[in-house]
Write a structure and sequence with these properties.
- The complex is a heterodimer.
- Chain A is built from no helices and eleven strands.
- By secondary structure, chain A is an all-beta fold.
- In chain A, strands 2, 4, 5, 9, 10 and 11 form a six-stranded mixed β-sheet that branches.
- In chain A, β6 and β7 form a beta hairpin.
- Chain A is globular and about 40 Å long.
- In chain A, 36% of the residues are buried.
- Chain B is mostly beta strands.
- In chain B, 0% of the residues lie in helices and 59% in strands.
- The radius of gyration of chain B is 13 Å and the shape is globular.
- The mean pLDDT of chain B is 93.
- Classes of the chains: A mainly beta, B mainly beta.
- Chains A and B meet through β4 and β5 of A and β5, β9 and β10 of B.
Chain lengths: 110, 114
Protein backbone atom coordinates (compact mmCIF):
# COMPACT_ATOMS: atom_id res chain seq x y z
CA UNK A 1 0.00 0.00 0.00
CA UNK A 2 1.32 3.39 -1.01
CA UNK A 3 2.11 5.81 1.80
CA UNK A 4 2.88 9.47 1.29
CA UNK A 5 4.67 11.60 3.87
CA UNK A 6 5.30 15.33 3.96
CA UNK A 7 7.94 16.73 6.27
CA UNK A 8 7.99 19.23 7.87
CA UNK A 9 4.35 19.60 8.86
CA UNK A 10 4.86 23.35 9.28
CA UNK A 11 7.38 25.87 8.02
CA UNK A 12 7.86 29.57 8.65
CA UNK A 13 10.25 31.60 6.50
CA UNK A 14 10.99 35.27 5.84
CA UNK A 15 9.86 36.80 2.59
CA UNK A 16 12.27 36.38 -0.30
CA UNK A 17 13.65 33.00 0.68
CA UNK A 18 13.86 30.15 -1.76
CA UNK A 19 12.38 27.08 -0.16
CA UNK A 20 11.83 23.39 -0.75
CA UNK A 21 8.86 21.33 0.35
CA UNK A 22 9.30 17.58 0.52
CA UNK A 23 7.01 14.69 -0.38
CA UNK A 24 8.09 11.07 0.11
CA UNK A 25 6.34 7.95 -1.11
CA UNK A 26 6.97 4.30 -0.31
CA UNK A 27 6.13 2.62 -3.62
CA UNK A 28 8.19 3.84 -6.55
CA UNK A 29 5.69 2.41 -9.07
CA UNK A 30 3.75 5.64 -9.19
CA UNK A 31 1.33 6.93 -11.81
CA UNK A 32 1.98 10.58 -11.21
CA UNK A 33 2.61 13.08 -8.47
CA UNK A 34 0.36 16.09 -8.04
CA UNK A 35 0.98 19.14 -5.88
CA UNK A 36 -1.89 21.19 -4.45
CA UNK A 37 -2.28 24.40 -2.56
CA UNK A 38 -4.99 24.93 0.03
CA UNK A 39 -5.76 28.30 1.58
CA UNK A 40 -7.51 28.35 4.97
CA UNK A 41 -11.18 27.47 4.63
CA UNK A 42 -10.84 26.85 0.92
CA UNK A 43 -10.61 23.92 -1.45
CA UNK A 44 -7.56 22.37 -3.04
CA UNK A 45 -6.07 24.04 -6.07
CA UNK A 46 -3.83 22.02 -8.35
CA UNK A 47 -0.38 23.53 -8.82
CA UNK A 48 1.65 21.02 -10.78
CA UNK A 49 1.39 17.47 -12.03
CA UNK A 50 4.42 15.34 -12.82
CA UNK A 51 3.82 12.24 -14.87
CA UNK A 52 5.68 9.07 -13.94
CA UNK A 53 7.88 9.42 -17.03
CA UNK A 54 8.82 13.03 -16.26
CA UNK A 55 11.48 14.48 -13.97
CA UNK A 56 10.12 17.95 -13.34
CA UNK A 57 7.47 20.53 -14.12
CA UNK A 58 7.61 24.29 -13.81
CA UNK A 59 5.00 26.99 -13.42
CA UNK A 60 6.17 30.51 -12.71
CA UNK A 61 8.10 30.53 -9.45
CA UNK A 62 7.22 26.92 -8.76
CA UNK A 63 9.23 23.90 -9.80
CA UNK A 64 8.33 20.34 -8.90
CA UNK A 65 10.74 17.47 -9.33
CA UNK A 66 10.30 13.73 -9.16
CA UNK A 67 12.87 11.08 -8.28
CA UNK A 68 11.18 7.70 -8.29
CA UNK A 69 14.31 5.79 -7.32
CA UNK A 70 14.54 7.67 -4.04
CA UNK A 71 10.76 7.86 -3.56
CA UNK A 72 10.77 11.61 -3.38
CA UNK A 73 9.23 14.70 -4.94
CA UNK A 74 10.12 18.26 -4.07
CA UNK A 75 8.29 21.52 -4.65
CA UNK A 76 10.67 24.43 -5.01
CA UNK A 77 9.29 27.93 -4.45
CA UNK A 78 11.54 30.74 -5.57
CA UNK A 79 11.58 34.15 -3.95
CA UNK A 80 8.76 33.39 -1.54
CA UNK A 81 6.07 35.99 -0.87
CA UNK A 82 3.50 36.40 1.92
CA UNK A 83 0.85 35.41 -0.62
CA UNK A 84 2.46 31.97 -0.81
CA UNK A 85 1.30 31.28 2.74
CA UNK A 86 -0.94 28.21 2.55
CA UNK A 87 -0.91 24.47 3.07
CA UNK A 88 0.75 22.47 0.33
CA UNK A 89 -0.29 18.88 -0.24
CA UNK A 90 1.11 16.25 -2.53
CA UNK A 91 -0.74 13.23 -3.86
CA UNK A 92 0.38 10.11 -5.66
CA UNK A 93 -2.18 9.44 -8.35
CA UNK A 94 -2.51 5.68 -8.10
CA UNK A 95 -4.28 3.66 -10.76
CA UNK A 96 -7.60 5.15 -9.69
CA UNK A 97 -7.33 5.99 -5.97
CA UNK A 98 -4.88 8.74 -5.04
CA UNK A 99 -2.87 8.75 -1.83
CA UNK A 100 -2.40 12.08 -0.10
CA UNK A 101 0.20 13.40 2.26
CA UNK A 102 -1.00 15.44 5.23
CA UNK A 103 0.52 18.62 3.91
CA UNK A 104 3.05 21.25 4.89
CA UNK A 105 1.66 24.45 6.35
CA UNK A 106 3.77 27.34 5.06
CA UNK A 107 3.89 30.82 6.50
CA UNK A 108 5.91 33.48 4.70
CA UNK A 109 6.28 36.53 6.91
CA UNK A 110 7.15 40.01 5.65
CA UNK B 1 -11.35 23.67 -16.77
CA UNK B 2 -13.52 20.91 -15.40
CA UNK B 3 -16.58 22.39 -13.73
CA UNK B 4 -17.35 20.86 -10.37
CA UNK B 5 -19.81 22.26 -7.86
CA UNK B 6 -20.81 21.13 -4.42
CA UNK B 7 -24.04 21.88 -2.60
CA UNK B 8 -24.82 22.93 -0.02
CA UNK B 9 -21.64 24.80 0.83
CA UNK B 10 -22.61 25.08 4.47
CA UNK B 11 -25.06 23.10 6.55
CA UNK B 12 -25.88 22.88 10.22
CA UNK B 13 -28.01 19.96 11.29
CA UNK B 14 -28.93 18.00 14.37
CA UNK B 15 -27.82 14.57 15.44
CA UNK B 16 -29.94 11.84 13.94
CA UNK B 17 -31.15 13.73 10.90
CA UNK B 18 -30.37 12.62 7.36
CA UNK B 19 -28.11 14.78 5.22
CA UNK B 20 -27.34 14.64 1.52
CA UNK B 21 -24.45 16.44 -0.12
CA UNK B 22 -24.36 16.83 -3.87
CA UNK B 23 -21.42 16.92 -6.23
CA UNK B 24 -22.08 17.98 -9.80
CA UNK B 25 -19.70 17.97 -12.75
CA UNK B 26 -20.35 19.65 -16.07
CA UNK B 27 -18.38 17.12 -18.12
CA UNK B 28 -18.51 13.32 -18.33
CA UNK B 29 -15.61 12.23 -16.20
CA UNK B 30 -15.87 8.67 -15.04
CA UNK B 31 -14.24 8.83 -11.61
CA UNK B 32 -15.67 10.87 -8.76
CA UNK B 33 -14.61 10.86 -5.12
CA UNK B 34 -15.87 12.01 -1.75
CA UNK B 35 -13.34 12.97 0.91
CA UNK B 36 -13.58 14.40 4.38
CA UNK B 37 -10.91 16.65 5.82
CA UNK B 38 -10.31 16.97 9.54
CA UNK B 39 -7.47 18.53 11.53
CA UNK B 40 -4.87 15.92 12.35
CA UNK B 41 -6.24 13.44 9.83
CA UNK B 42 -5.76 15.09 6.50
CA UNK B 43 -7.89 14.00 3.57
CA UNK B 44 -9.65 10.67 3.94
CA UNK B 45 -11.53 8.88 1.20
CA UNK B 46 -15.15 8.05 2.02
CA UNK B 47 -16.48 6.57 -1.21
CA UNK B 48 -15.68 6.76 -4.87
CA UNK B 49 -17.45 6.03 -8.13
CA UNK B 50 -16.12 4.71 -11.41
CA UNK B 51 -19.32 5.03 -13.40
CA UNK B 52 -23.08 5.25 -13.20
CA UNK B 53 -24.25 2.97 -10.39
CA UNK B 54 -20.65 1.79 -9.85
CA UNK B 55 -19.37 2.79 -6.44
CA UNK B 56 -17.00 1.45 -3.84
CA UNK B 57 -15.95 2.15 -0.28
CA UNK B 58 -13.00 4.16 0.87
CA UNK B 59 -11.19 4.04 4.18
CA UNK B 60 -13.88 5.81 6.25
CA UNK B 61 -17.16 4.68 4.70
CA UNK B 62 -19.05 3.68 7.87
CA UNK B 63 -22.12 5.86 8.34
CA UNK B 64 -22.08 7.08 4.74
CA UNK B 65 -23.75 5.93 1.56
CA UNK B 66 -23.46 7.21 -2.00
CA UNK B 67 -25.40 7.10 -5.20
CA UNK B 68 -24.64 7.88 -8.79
CA UNK B 69 -27.65 7.61 -11.05
CA UNK B 70 -26.26 10.05 -13.62
CA UNK B 71 -22.70 10.60 -14.79
CA UNK B 72 -22.72 14.20 -13.66
CA UNK B 73 -24.02 13.75 -10.11
CA UNK B 74 -22.49 11.96 -7.14
CA UNK B 75 -24.48 12.14 -3.92
CA UNK B 76 -23.17 11.52 -0.41
CA UNK B 77 -25.75 10.66 2.23
CA UNK B 78 -25.42 10.56 5.97
CA UNK B 79 -28.41 8.43 6.94
CA UNK B 80 -28.36 9.57 10.57
CA UNK B 81 -25.83 12.29 11.20
CA UNK B 82 -23.58 12.12 14.27
CA UNK B 83 -21.34 14.76 15.80
CA UNK B 84 -18.28 12.81 14.63
CA UNK B 85 -19.37 13.55 11.07
CA UNK B 86 -18.86 17.26 11.57
CA UNK B 87 -16.26 17.97 8.94
CA UNK B 88 -15.47 19.59 5.65
CA UNK B 89 -16.43 17.36 2.74
CA UNK B 90 -14.73 17.61 -0.62
CA UNK B 91 -15.76 16.13 -3.90
CA UNK B 92 -13.14 15.48 -6.56
CA UNK B 93 -13.16 14.27 -10.12
CA UNK B 94 -10.45 12.60 -12.12
CA UNK B 95 -9.74 14.39 -15.33
CA UNK B 96 -7.07 13.95 -17.97
CA UNK B 97 -6.24 11.15 -20.32
CA UNK B 98 -5.32 7.55 -19.41
CA UNK B 99 -1.95 7.47 -17.75
CA UNK B 100 -2.66 10.64 -15.86
CA UNK B 101 -4.81 10.84 -12.77
CA UNK B 102 -5.38 14.56 -12.45
CA UNK B 103 -7.61 15.42 -9.55
CA UNK B 104 -9.81 18.50 -9.54
CA UNK B 105 -11.58 19.43 -6.33
CA UNK B 106 -14.80 21.17 -5.54
CA UNK B 107 -14.93 24.08 -3.12
CA UNK B 108 -16.06 21.94 -0.21
CA UNK B 109 -19.15 21.54 1.95
CA UNK B 110 -18.83 22.43 5.62
CA UNK B 111 -21.14 20.29 7.74
CA UNK B 112 -21.80 20.87 11.41
CA UNK B 113 -23.77 18.28 13.35
CA UNK B 114 -25.05 19.56 16.68
Amino acid sequence: KQEVTQIPAALSVPEGENLVLNCSFTDSAIYNLQWFRQDPGKGLTSLLLIQSSQREQTSGRLNASLDKSSGRSTLYIAASQPGDSATYLCAEGGSYIPTFGRGTSLIVHP
Amino acid sequence: DAGITQSPRHKVTETGTPVTLRCHQTENHRYMYWYRQDPGHGLRLIHYSYGVKDTDKGEVSDGYSVSRSKTEDFLLTLESATSSQTSVYFCAIRTGYDGANVLTFGAGSRLTVL
